Amino acid sequence: MFSVTVRDHILVAHSLRGAMFGPAQALHGATYVIEAEFRRPDLDASNVVMDMGRAAAALREAASRLNYRNLDEAGEFRGEITTTEFLARYLHGEISRQVEGEFHGGLKVTLRESPDAWAAYEAEVGT
Length: 127
Hints:
Blueprint: E1 2-14, E2 28-40, H1 52-64, E3 69-70, H2 84-98, E4 105-114, E5 117-125
Parallel strand pairs: 1-3
Antiparallel strand pairs: 1-2, 2-4, 4-5
Helix pairs in contact: 1-2
């Protein structure tokens, strides 16, 4: 399996409803490092998994929709608990739309809250 990974980062504010979230129930900031890993069993006709510049641009565009936003006030997240896992799936969908028709294979989006804690969402794109 071949892979190409690109990174970006975002800063968001949000609160997480529910006693299980403890102090994170209050409005707080979060800085996420985002990794988008594109995977294919074979290289394409140009001997690449995905053009790295195009992959980085797709991630940048998706990330820009969240960067410096209070997610509690974002209409598209009304009623949602914007956990790291939820945001990984959301960004996967946004990146998938960006590369539709250009990439066919696996995409794994990882959000790192710290060097010790992260969450990811993985699914096929373009199949």
